[in-house]
Automatic annotation (TrEMBL):
It is found in: Membrane. InterPro entries: ICMT_MeTrfase, Isoprenylcys_mtase, Metal_cation-efflux_comp. It is a multi-pass membrane protein. NCBIfam families: isopcys_mtase. This is Protein-S-isoprenylcysteine O-methyltransferase Ste14. It holds the Pfam family ICMT. Its main location: membrane. It comes from Xanthobacter agilis.
Length: 196
């Protein structure tokens, strides 16, 4: 097996593991009634589609076909090892985030009935650790897929979703939790502890 084939397989295993980790939490979240789904709209769905193109469609096309070939470059062992380690950390963070937020998790922006503000566990470090995990997935993809388009597509696609969504999400949380959320914002950063 070539190093390139190994790196593509490692990326694919990481993506499959990501969705397998999410299954039990998604089932729990579906049982909760939604009290505020006003942000479930065309804009949010468009952002989710852009993110999926970057983290799913474009890299899968590259992994299966090598396209676009003109943007490929040679991969190194250090790059593959770093990519695997970053993806493992992303998966761990993704699992911890789901475990902490539990039944309040949602793909779209919504508040569940009897929703509580989660500020413990990994949420004591950053306000959006799931977004942190997605950025790490994007970084792992950039390392594992040696293609100037498919590699960074995850960081770009998810970055677009994040920057157009996070402010609206925080506004929704502020409206739902008021002063408690404002205090939480003052003591935490968005996705990188102590930095941003």
């Amino acid at each position: 097996m070539t190093l390139l084939a190994f790196s593509k397989i490692a990326w694919a295993i990481g993506v499959v593991a990501w969705y397998v980790l999410r299954i039990p939490f998604e089932r729990k979240a579906r049982r909760m009634k939604v009290s505020d789904a006003r942000h479930r709209n065309l804009r949010d769905m468009t952002l989710l589609t852009i993110s999926t193109l970057g983290l799913g469609v474009t890299p899968t096309l590259y992994a299966l076909t090598g396209l676009p070939r003109f943007a490929s470059y040679p991969i190194t062992v250090i790059q593959v090892v770093a990519g695997i380690l970053v993806f493992l950390f992303a998966l761990w963070l993704f699992w911890r985030t789901h475990k902490a937020i539990g039944k309040y998790w949602s793909v779209t922006l919504e508040i569940k009935e009897k929703h509580e503000l989660v500020t413990t566990g990994i949420y004591a470090q950053v306000r959006h650790p799931m977004y942190s995990a997605f950025f790490l997935w994007g970084l792992a993809q950039a390392l594992l897929l040696p293609n100037w388009i498919a590699g960074p597509a995850g960081l770009i696609g998810f970055g677009i979703l994040f920057f157009f969504r996070v402010g609206r999400e925080e506004q929704m949380m502020r409206e739902a939790f008021g002063a408690a959320y404002d205090a939480y914002v003052r003591r935490t950063k968005r996705v990188i502890p102590g930095i941003y």
